[in-house]
Amino acid sequence: MLEHESIIRLGFFLGIFAVMGCWELITPCRRLTASKIRRWTNNLLIVVINTLTVRILFPTAAVGMALLAAEKGWGLLNVIALPQGLEVVLAIIALDLAIYLQHVLFHAIPALWQLHMVHHSDIDIDVTTGARFHPVEIVLSILIKFAVILMLGPSATAVVIFEVLLNGAAMFNHSNIRIPSRIDRVLRLFIVTPDMHRVHHSVIKDETNSNFGFNLPWWDRLLGTYRDQPRLGHVNMEIGLKPLRDPAWLTLPRLLTLPFSHSARDYPMNRSD
Fold first, then answer.
1. Count of beta carbons in the 10 Å neighbourhood of residue 25
2. How far apart, in Å, do the first and last CA atoms of the chain sit?
3. DSSP assignment of the chain, as one string?
4. The pLDDT of residue 245
5. Domain enclosing residue 30, as ranges
6. Crossing angle for the helix pair 156-173 and 84-108, nearest 10 degrees?
7. Comparing C-alpha atoms, which of 225, 193, 236, 165 is closest to residue 16?
8. Are 158 and 83 in contact (CB under 8 A)?
9. CA 174 to CA 181: how far, in whole Å?
10. With a threshold of 0.90, does the pTM exceed it?
11. Structural domain total, the chain
């Protein structure tokens, strides 16, 4: 598995992307407000830039850090002897909690919110939004993940599985798909659903500061950041950031310069409606 990690991740990415993209066409939840071709072009160009950036700066990525931690005996899970299956499960849960906390951090610190605004500035939400992040945010996220891996000591197998699950879940829960409410109520007990995460992309500020989970839905419920539904409903809610709803912000140059051209003085964690 480990020697083919890049191929495995790419295969899952393309497969899940294709499934969710077709699902959106068949049963969309919301009518899009901007040109899909324009949005997809710019969002996917950011994906290409981020992928190249990560491969150039961190050739072995998180898997390499896990192998280094195992070789040096660093991290809690390299000290405590556990059955492999249990170690993988615990590592995935712990890494997911770390992603949740990191997400809260990017909403709470102005300099980090400046970067994270690129993700939230999308005026529609669909499968491509799940990968729309500024390259500097991606680099910082990788460095935080490295630190967590060194402290936790997960196996390389656990890291590969977690990365595949996280990427797949991000595409799923950002998708513009309609799931019957009775099914959604059950699904969101185990995974973050599109209806659950869509609330997080509302222009209403206290909704923006809810439902931070990307994969597992438990952290929001346990730590008090869970919101069941948007006030205006999923069809009528407004997506994005109020000051940045002009479609002109959809161009790639503007997205890349957004953190340096727009003030975060009213960043989410210190503002109220």
1. 11
2. 49
3. -GGGHHHHHHHHHHHHHHHHHHHHHHSBSS--SS-HHHHHHHHHHHHHHHHHHHHHH-TTHHHHHHHHHHHHT-SHHHHS---HHHHHHHHHHHHHHHHHHHHHHHHHSHHHHHHHHHHHT-SS-SGGGGG---HHHHHHHHHHHHHHHHHH---HHHHHHHHHHHHHHHHHHTS-B---HHHHHHHTTTS--HHHHHGGGBSSHHHHTS---SS-SHHHHHTT---SS-TTHHHHPPBS-GGG-SGGGGSHHHHHHHHHHS--TT-GGG---
4. 84
5. 2-270
6. 50
7. 165
8. no
9. 17
10. yes
11. 1
Q: Are 193 and 234 in contact (CB under 8 A)?
A: no
Nearest CA among 194, 198, 196 for reference residue 218:
196
**């393309």: which residue's tokens?**
14
Segment 101-140, tens digit of pLDDT: 999 999 999 999 999 999 999 999 999 999 999 999 999 9
| Both tokens assigned to 90 | 């615990």
Residue type, 25: L
Tens digits of residue pLDDT in 17-58: 999 999 999 999 999 998 899 999 999 999 999 999 998 988
